[in-house]
């Protein structure tokens, strides 16, 4: 075997071993703590300090949990994952930036699903978006507060027609200069907003293109505009149990569904 060929074989072997070690290093469940360190393995006894530090050590379809109340920093999500800080007051202070960007493009990630639970995202008056969804199949946001951002609270803006499903439940979106929940996806996205408070924003719920937003059990008040539909077949379907009042312009749903 020539020295050049031998060198190539050795190099490939090192890469394969490194990839194997990296894959094994990723845990299904990781933890973050206000007193953690991103050099740690993100285990319960040696947690990381930020979501950005933990996500690289968390396997696809895995979960990041918060051990204590703290600010865990903005994060870009590029794989299916759950971030769950329920009951621990986990937060993101996103001054000057976007709190969470979701952009899953890998062909090997078949689910392209993200769950966000129990977070507070505070833009501190200069933050851009709370949660920006560029590409994903399913995003679920539960028990989350998004406050004081300059563009949108949750914005769904897929550039490919994959029909994203967005679920927002038991959440508060307030003091947002732009739109609290904005569905501008290229594909026919399906959005469900339930049992949430949407107040003090430029627009409460906005949908355009071919997307559909269903709303149930929400209070939408003190926004400049409550509901807004624009372009093509955009729909807002109300389950007739929402309170939409006290906005500069309340807006109207495209249709209603009787409770059963």
Give the overall shape, derived from the CA principal axes: globular
Write the H/E string, N to C.
Answer: HEHEEEEEEEEEEEEEEEEEEEEEEEE
Helix content: 10-25%
CATH architecture of the largest domain: 3 Solenoid
Count of helical stretches? 2
Radius of gyration: 21 Å
Oligomer: single chain
Our estimate of the beta-strand percent is: 35-45%
Describe the overall structure.
The structure is a single chain. This protein has 260 residues and is mainly beta. The chain has two domains: 1-60, no CATH class; 73-256, Single-stranded right-handed beta-helix, Pectin lyase-like (Pectate Lyase C-like), CATH 2.160.20. Helix content is 11%, strand content 45%. It has two helices and 25 strands. The protein has helices at 3-25, 51-55; strands at residues 27-32, 58-66, 70-71, 75-77, 81-84, 90-93, 100-103, 113-117, 119-127, 131-135, 138-142, 145-149, 152-156, 165-169, 172-174, 179-183, 190-194, 197-199, 203-208, 212-216, 219-221, 225-230, 235-238, 243-245, 255-256. The strands form three sheets. The protein has a ten-stranded parallel beta sheet with strand order 1-2-5-8-11-14-17-20-23-25. Strand 1 (27-32), helix 2 and strand 2 form a beta-alpha-beta unit. The protein is globular and about 50 Å long. The protein starts with a helix and ends with a strand. Mean pLDDT is 90; it is low at 13-24.
